[in-house]
Amino acid sequence: MRVAILGCGYVGLAAGDALSAAGHDVVGVRRSEAGLEAVSAAGLEPVRADVTEPETLEAVPDADAVVFTASSGGGDVAAARSVYVEGLGATIDAFAGRSNPPDKLLYTSSTGVYGDHDGEWVDEESELRPATAKAEVLVEAESVARAAADRGMDPTVARLGGVYGPERLRVGRYLERPVTEGYLNLIHREDAGGAIRFLLEADAPETVLVVDDEPVWKPDLSVWLADQCGVEAPHARTLEEHLADADLSAGSKRRLRGQKRCSNARLRALGYEFLRPTFRAGYREAIEAYTAQ
């Protein structure tokens, strides 16, 4: 299978690595020189294009599957819409109009679309309650991805939890300052990439939650990390104490209130086997590095 990964960054490179290891041909699409160098260093075929500039997508070769992992880079709502809604739509248009269009489209969304469920469990059928304007954009983008079915592509929306891994394993943040109550729904970078590979190879349903086995209460993660590192756990503050911080924006407060526990039962039922099934496996190298300081 030939796969084109649009926005081949932190998650896209992991997907490319997993796909390449499984014998697939992978094209990694980035817009910057540094990004293209990272794609090349990963052993993937680099192609320069920008989803917000539709004419550049002509440079991307035909593919059997398209993976859309482009990011707005932490920009504002307009930037998010430009990438996730308009850029995704332009990508679907560019590939669907070809003489040899892709069979599959996989769009990486976020568990942020669920908003607040008072810490209860959610799955693919749960109500979406986007709490911020950016989350509303992500919900709209999911609809754009599903509409690819009308253009002859089989779409899958993969709702990823918080992706962590190399360069994002900040043990100190849970040991060196107060930790605010709340759930983390995590997915290690290796499993984010592995799940994308698996979903492209499988007869995947339209929507799949990509999270690990165990949503973790942040104070519990802090206590566990402290025990592993042989240090004292920091103070745990309540969510309301944190929300009283006057420096937090209204949007940030709404996002912080978005408590839920995301189930990976569907992904497990499909047959995916996790490399890092919980944070305990995912943080092992980071703990060793922290204690070696």
Index terms:
293 residues, alpha/beta, Rossmann fold, seven-stranded parallel β-sheet, two-stranded parallel ribbon, 11 helices, 38% helix, 19% strand, globular
Structure description:
The protein is an alpha/beta fold and 293 residues long. The protein has a domain at 2-165 and 187-212 and 263-275: NAD(P)-binding Rossmann-like Domain (Rossmann fold, 3-Layer(aba) Sandwich), CATH 3.40.50. The chain contains 11 helices and 15 strands. The protein has helices at 10-21, 33-41, 77-96, 133-146, 189-201, 218-229, 239-243, 250-256, 265-270, 279-282, 284-291, and strands spanning 2-6, 25-30, 45-48, 65-68, 104-110, 121-122, 154-160, 162-164, 179-180, 183-184, 186-188, 207-210, 216-217, 236-237, 261-262. Strands 3-2-1-4-5-7-12 form a 7-stranded parallel beta sheet, sandwiched between helices. The chain is globular. It starts with a strand and ends with a helix. The model has no long low-confidence stretch (mean pLDDT 94).
